[in-house]
Amino acid sequence: MIDNNGQKDSTLKRISLKINYYVMIVIVGLGIVDLVYASYFFDGSYFDIIDGFYMAGIAACGIASISVAKKYNKSVLGRAYLFLGLSFFAWFIADVGYYFQQFVLNIDPWPSIFDTSVLTAYVFAIFHLYINIRLFKPNGLHQ
Hints:
Number of helices: 5
């Protein structure tokens, strides 16, 4: 892969593509716990601790993505993670707006001006995926 300066980008050769299955199991488990909690124990009429963890998780993903983008600043991977971080931050802004309208202003948040932030999050996520699809081949790294 060639970077913006016309030089060979060696960032991708240093990245381990090993999948940590324990992390995947924890993520799926937390997703199942959240679905069961939301379906059977929460009516959505107030802001609870699960919502706080949800919002903190979105913000943490955005911060982590931006820090990866800073680490690989001049590479294609850096741009991909910049778009991912911007996507998480747009999602976070939309949720803050929705929660503010629903629980502070006591108005129905749909439709809202914050819907544009959700759409922006999808656009940035598509950019991230496009860069990754273009960057990686099924048989390994794109050279």
